[in-house]
Amino acid sequence: MKVRYKIYNLPFRYPFTISRGTKTHQPSFVVELEFMGITGYGEAPAIAYYNIPVEKMATDLETKRTFIEKFAFSDPERYWHYLHHLFPANPFLVCALDMAGWDLYGKLKGKQLYELWELDTAQAPVTDYTIGIDTIEKMVEKLAEKPWPIYKIKVGVENDIEMVTELRKHTNAVFRVDANAGWTLEQALHKIPLLKELGVELVEQPLSKDNWDGMKTLYVQSPLPLFADESCVAEQDVDRCKDHFHGINIKLTKCSGITPARRMIARARELNLQVMVGCMNESSIGNAAIAQLAPLLDHVDMDGPLLLAEDIAAGQTFNYGRIIYLQNTPGLGITGVHF
Ligand code: MG
Fold first, then answer.
1. For the chain, what is the domain count?
2. What is the pLDDT of residue 62?
3. Contact at 8 Å (CB) between 106 and 289?
4. Taking the chain, what is the end-to-end CA distance rounded to the nearest angstrom?
5. Do 233 and 306 belong together in one domain?
6. Mind listing the pLDDT tens digit for each residue in 141-190?
């Protein structure tokens, strides 16, 4: 097996602001695995909050390149296990390689992953479209520019109720909000009932990631379902979300790939937690992996390629939020990778 990588710095269509800050570009690490003349691709965007820059992914890969290449590839789950032990401190790199392994595996079998997993794409939820934090005028403009059935609105700032109130005047679409750990318990207790009145369906990560006591209180009192994102990073975090959150938002990059994400979905179901998979501003490569899992989910947030001004592959497209899968493209369901 041969491994190659490329680093991209993909510009956003608009500067992307959440409660933690603003960025204009998304650095992303893309790997290519070549085996028996077939190539598989995987992606991991770097997120400053998780402190694994693309350079670290490249250095770690180079340090253990021979180990990555000498593995006798037969199935992606075994490969993930091997990678997980090779890079215990770099889930992002493991995610990119795991995803490439799954793409390769699907291509070897001549099927998209959802077909191999016997999933029905008609069950896939409609994706939301994210409205980042901006001036209220600009947020209204972004909303008007992209008519969509579900919007995910970034909140967690002083005037967020005012923001959502104004946006509500312009659409009857479903709203969900993501505070990105930006509220105190008191703020959350005050704001969530107001958001419910504004037709918001769910709240993502209201409190800081370690505020489990606060979440216990909020869980009992919140009139809206609460989803863990920053509090639910890896497999071992799923269990403690029970009785603190109503659901989890899985990100492939932070949990280290498709393989553990499938186990997290299964575990969440056992615990009666709802499941969302979210993007981290991936291009169409990483987004394709989310699409393969979509039929298993209650909610999906896979608008990365729509927020970026440049893409590095062609993959699934959307019809008013509904995923349209490419036909005759085995593996992740992507084509034309600029690598
Ligand atoms: Mg989030």
1. 2
2. 98
3. no
4. 17
5. yes
6. 999 999 999 999 999 999 999 999 999 999 999 999 999 999 999 999 99
How many A from CA of 178 to the centre of ligand 1? Answer: 6
**What's the CA-to-centroid distance between 119 and ligand 1, angstroms?**
26
Contact 130, 154 (CB under 8 A): yes
Sign of CA dihedral 87, 93, 97, 99: positive
CB within 5 A of ion ligand 1: which residues? 178, 204, 229
Residues 89 and 143 in one domain: no
CATH number, domain with residue 42: 3.30.390.10
Could you tell me the residue range of the domain that residue 85 belongs to? Answer: 2-110
Ligand 1 centroid – CA 102 distance (Å): 25
**CA of residue 146 to ligand 1 center, whole Å:** 20
Same domain, 99 and 137: no
Please write the tens of the pLDDT for every residue from 18-65.
988 999 999 999 999 999 999 999 999 999 889 999 999 999 999 999
For 37, other C-beta atoms within 10 Å of its C-beta total 5
CA–centroid distance, 200 to ligand 1, in Å, is: 15
pLDDT for the residue 124: 98
Please choose, from the candidates 255, 329, 256, the residue with its C-alpha nearest in 3D space to the C-alpha of residue 39. Answer: 329
Q: pLDDT digit string (tens) for 100-153?
A: 999 999 999 999 999 999 999 999 999 999 999 999 999 999 999 999 999 999
Do 82 and 147 lie in one domain? The reply is: no
C-alpha closest to that of 256 among 90, 102, 100: 90
pTM reported for the whole predicted model: 0.98
For residue 94, the CA-to-ligand 1 centroid distance in Å is 21
